[in-house]
Amino acid sequence: VVQLLSSEELETEDERLVYESAMNWINYDLNKRHCYLPEMLQTVRLALLPAIYLMENVATEELITKHRKSKDIVEEAIRCKLKILQNDGVVTSLCARPRKTGHALFLLGGQTFMCDKLYLVDQKAKEIIPKADIPSPRKEFSACAIGCKVYITGGRGSENGVSKDVWVYDTLHEEWSKAAPMLVARFGHGSAELKHCLYVVGGHTAATGCLPASPSVSLKQVEQYDPVTNKWTMVAPLREGVSNAAVVSAKLKLFAFGGTSVSHDKLPKVQCYDL
Q1: 227 with 197: CB under 8 angstroms?
Q2: Distance between CA atoms of residues 44 and 101, nearest Å
Q3: What pLDDT, in 10s, does the model give residues 139-196?
Q4: Which helix (H) or strand (E) holds 200?
Q5: 3-state secondary structure at position 243
Q6: Which helix (DSSP H) or strand (DSSP E) does residue 79 occupy?
Q7: Which candidate among 125, 130, 157, 159 keeps its CA 20 to 30 Å from the CA of 109?
Q8: Which long-range CB contacts under 8 A does 190-193 form with residues at least 24 apart?
Q9: What's the CA gap between 112 and 94, in Å, rounded?
Q10: Residue 34 class from Cβ within 10 Å (0-12 exposed, 13-18 middle, 19+ buried)?
């Protein structure tokens, strides 16, 4: 098990899976295996865990707090995590070394026509492979990947109505499920992942009383979705409402590049949300 979990060939985008596998192995026969806890913890890239998970789940785990060597391993990982979060120099510890990940490219959606198709671009075979259809055809939605799942938010659905719906594609099981709806129906928005949460930014909603939906002014509202709690929360709004902006996260910040302003002009600005 140690050889498997510590292998440089092990691929994962969520180190929690490795930690939980190690702990499940220990707990399966606790009396005989508890002595291997430090060795098992060293197979986990603990500093790659989400900070909250590391502090609230790992650092408080009773098996770890009662074992001096295990506790030291976790405390060292916390120090590495803080250096990473504070951008305080290069962290070379094994507990912070990134895992290999297998990446995939998906094609879906569009702006002109309703679409329910999802395709996988197989770079090795050099072909495009159809996958499970989106359950509800739509256009002008936004898509974002978190781990092994793809989240599509909002868009225009049936009869051109603006949607709050959130659909989730599980790339491992190749199936769709529905998540909690957004707080504001929107289309032409952007989305990005930041600290394991999904953010949707700007876009349009429906102008009041208009059917089929016609665009409102560009939105300022920004929403955060937590996949763990399946809940949406409003966060600080954009300084200027914008639609069709390019949205990306980097270094614990969310950036919205350009887009169309509330006056329907092209916006030559970059807006930044700092956690």
Answers
A1: yes
A2: 15
A3: 999 999 998 899 999 999 876 689 999 999 999 889 999 999 999 999 999 999 999 9
A4: strand 197-201
A5: strand
A6: helix 68-85
A7: 125
A8: 190/142, 190/244, 190/245, 190/246, 190/247, 190/256, 190/259, 191/142, 191/143, 191/144, 191/151, 191/153, 191/247, 192/144, 192/247, 192/248, 192/249, 192/254, 193/144, 193/145, 193/146, 193/249
A9: 48
A10: middle
Residues in Cβ contact with 40 at an 8 Å cutoff, skipping those fewer than 6 apart: 1, 2, 5, 22, 23, 25, 26
Supply the pLDDT for residue 275.
76
pTM: 0.63
125 contact partners, CB below 8 Å, separation of at least 6? none
Q: C-alpha angle with apex 83: 251 to 54, nearest 5 degrees? A: 90
**Residue positions counted in the chain:** 275
Amino acid at 192: A
What domains can you pick out in the chain, each with its CATH number? 2-96 (1.25.40.420), 105-274 (2.120.10.80)
Report residues of the chain scoring pLDDT below 70.
101-102, 159-160, 207-216
